[in-house]
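Before drawing any conclusions, I needed to go through one protein's amino acid sequence and its backbone structure tokens, quoted below without any editing.
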Amino acid sequence: DAADDPAVWPNAKDPAQSLVIGTDKKAGIHVYDMAGKRVSFTPAARLNNVDMRP
């Protein structure tokens, strides 16, 4: 599969503004809002996973 290991960026002040970030190993990084709408895409090759750190 090209899609792999999403991560959630929590917005503590407004949880509805939290984001889901995921990689597409063949295309790049996708960012989605909590309703599932894509809000950003950054093309990049050879990605694997997304990890969030505090």
